[in-house]
Design goal:
The chain has 161 residues and is an alpha/beta fold. It has one domain: Rossmann fold (3-Layer(aba) Sandwich). 43% of the residues lie in helices and 15% in strands. The strands form two sheets. Strands 1-2-3 form a three-stranded parallel sheet. It has a two-stranded parallel sheet with strand order 4-5. Bound molecules: coenzyme A. The site of coenzyme A has 26 residues, from strand 1, helix 1, helix 4 and helix 5.
Length: 161
């Protein structure tokens, strides 16, 4: 199964989805991708490293992390995936993900998506919120995994100078 996203940066919400999705499949590939509508703050290499650090204490043997600069469906076919997994926080996420799945199915008829409702306590977290709060020196400890707090804070504070 594929877990695609911008992950700029990876949040506790993303980690929850990764943990749960890893139990639903033989192998989960978390792929750091490009979203044409976003200009990421963290480089693809930094985002891959943050994800690996976030999961290092989980001992998830069937999870791999990589960066991919092309179309989602190309990687999906190359890896022989059965589905992509995405976290759903709200009705608007559901609409966005349904449309996204349809668009990907137009590109590759064998495409499928698994939409996992996110945990209540993580439903308000987004990468943008992490970046905004962190860039003012605010507390991001409830938003990103403990393993990456310092690295994320350092980058965000540097971005302001
Ligand atoms: N908990 C917390 N936050 C969550 C979440 C969860 N369970 N699920 C999503 N989010 C948040 C993210 O933090 C992010 O917030 P932001 O908008 O403030 O950055 C937002 O919801 C969604 O971002 P993310 O999960 O990182 O993915 P994305 O929507 O940016 O990813 C791609 C979209 C990368 C999958 C898509 O652009 C893509 O497929 N790109 C490849 C190119 C391609 O094939 N394009 C054609 C597609 S039809």
């Amino acid at each position: 199964m594929l877990f695609p996203g911008t992950f700029d940066p990876f949040t506790r919400g993303h980690r929850d989805i990764a943990r749960r999705a890893s139990k639903l499949c033989d192998k989960l590939v978390i792929a750091v991708m490009e979203n044409a509508a976003k200009t990421p703050l963290f480089s693809p290499e930094e985002r891959v490293e943050l994800i690996k650090l976030s999961l290092k204490n989980d001992d998830l043997k069937n999870v791999e992390v990589m960066a991919w600069g092309g179309l989602l469906v190309d990687l999906y076919q190359q890896l022989g995936c059965c589905a992509s997994v995405r976290g759903i926080r709200s009705e608007s996420d559901f609409r966005y993900e349904s449309e996204h799945a349809l668009a990907n199915r137009l590109l590759f008829a064998g495409y499928d998506a698994v939409l996992l409702p996110c945990r209540d306590d993580l439903s308000l977290i987004s990468s943008s919120m992490v970046k905004e709060v962190g860039s003012y020196g605010g507390d991001i400890s409830k938003m990103v995994p403990a393993e990456i707090i310092d690295k994320v804070k350092e980058k965000l504070l540097k971005g302001r100078t």
